[in-house]
Structure formats: structure tokens, C-alpha cells
Amino acid sequence: MRNATVTTKNREVSKDVGIRVLGTVLESLPGNLFQVKLEENDYKVVAYLAGKLMQHRIWVLPGDQVTVELSPYDLTRGRIVWRNPGS
């Protein structure tokens, strides 16, 4: 996959850049969605499972610590990219 870029007046912004933060799953919502509380600022976001987690049948349950990738465009939605071991 190529790295798509958008050129603004004086800078290039990459579309593939995501903000990765740690969080704790609060509850499981319908439609393979999860409510996650971020550790850095105690915000609550709605996140879905990344394709690799679904492909390898990784279970994510309330109370698990996960790594969430947020889009720089909408900080209220994200994608769970990693379930931290030992949680």
C-alpha cells in the first residue's frame, strides 16, 4: 500500500499517520464495536477491531488493555490494533 499524501499550502500531510495511545476496554457494543477509555487523558472513544485481530480470532473483553490508533481527523473514533499481553 502506498503512502498517500495531501499537499496543503506549505506542507505535506500523510493520510496513513495514526495516533497510537493505550486504553482500557470499558464495554462491548453491538456491531463489533468497543468503548475504550484512553489512559493519557481519560477520554472515551468508540473503536473497532483491526482486520488482523479478527483474522486471528483475538478476543477482546471488557477490562483488557489495548492499543488504539486514532485518526487525526476524528479523535472520537479509533481502531484497536493490539491487545496487550497480561491484561
UniProtKB/TrEMBL annotation:
Signal peptide per UniProt: none
Name of this chain's protein: Translation initiation factor IF-1, chloroplastic
Single GO term (MF): RNA binding
Keywords: Initiation factor, Protein biosynthesis
Species this protein is from: Geodia barretti
S1-like domain ranges (all copies): 9-85
SUPFAM superfamilies named in the record: Nucleic acid-binding proteins
Gene Ontology CC annotations of this record: cytosol
PANTHER family per UniProt: TRANSLATION INITIATION FACTOR IF-1, CHLOROPLASTIC
Protein's job: One of the essential components for the initiation of protein synthesis. Stabilizes the binding of IF-2 and IF-3 on the 30S subunit to which N-formylmethionyl-tRNA(fMet) subsequently binds. Helps modulate mRNA selection, yielding the 30S pre-initiation complex (PIC). Upon addition of the 50S ribosomal subunit IF-1, IF-2 and IF-3 are released leaving the mature 70S translation initiation complex.
Family: Belongs to the IF-1 family.
Subunit structure of this chain's protein: Component of the 30S ribosomal translation pre-initiation complex which assembles on the 30S ribosome in the order IF-2 and IF-3, IF-1 and N-formylmethionyl-tRNA(fMet); mRNA recruitment can occur at any time during PIC assembly.
CDD domains in the cross-refs: S1_IF1 (cd04451)
Organism placement in taxonomy: Eukaryota, Metazoa, Porifera, Demospongiae, Heteroscleromorpha
